[in-house]
């Protein structure tokens, strides 16, 4: 049996995180001997799975679903595949949002308005300023993007 300190040293996960994982159900409750947590060496493998899932961007509730939220006869490969497909879709949406944010920032960097009032007076329905700089150069966003209107 391993103490919480031993598990922390061997896994690279702080003892406070191990206690949190246990509280959230990611780790099974540790046995107690003399008031101290004692873990089976098998816990190190489960912690490696948790760390891998975190590196893939899974949140605690998603990791719990991955570990415990499937019928026991569903193999880990199918669990991972289902969860990974959902996570990839989320990441693709975030990438689209990031591209839009970069475009809004880049266009805003070309702003030539002298005041917010001036910019707001020239706002078109698509959230861009019609002033655009020299001789109608690029129209640029004001303060909001399509996402926040």
Automatic annotation (TrEMBL):
Keywords, sorted A to Z: Coiled coil, DNA-binding
UniProt domain HTH merR-type: residue ranges: 1-69
Keyword Coiled coil belongs to the record: yes
Transmembrane regions: none
Coiled-coil regions listed in the entry: 77-104
Sample GO molecular function, one term: DNA binding
Pfam families: MerR_1
Name of the protein in its database record: MerR family transcriptional regulator
Organism: Cohnella pontilimi
Lineage start: Bacteria, Bacillati, Bacillota, Bacilli, Bacillales
């Amino acid at each position: 049996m391993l103490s919480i300190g031993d598990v922390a040293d061997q896994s690279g996960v702080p003892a406070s995180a191990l206690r949190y994982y246990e509280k959230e159900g990611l780790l099974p409750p540790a046995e107690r001997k003399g008031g101290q947590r004692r873990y089976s060496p098998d816990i190190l493998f489960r912690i490696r799975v948790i760390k891998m899932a975190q590196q893939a961007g899974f949140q605690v509730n998603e990791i719990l679903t991955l570990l415990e939220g499937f019928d026991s006869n569903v193999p880990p490969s199918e669990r991972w595949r289902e969860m990974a497909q959902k996570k990839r879709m989320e990441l693709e949406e975030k990438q689209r949002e990031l591209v839009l944010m970069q475009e809004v920032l880049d266009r805003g960097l070309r702003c030539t308005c002298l005041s917010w009032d001036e910019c707001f007076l020239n706002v078109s329905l698509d959230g861009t300023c019609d002033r655009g700089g020299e001789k109608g150069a690029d129209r640029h966003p004001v303060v909001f993007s399509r996402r926040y209107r």
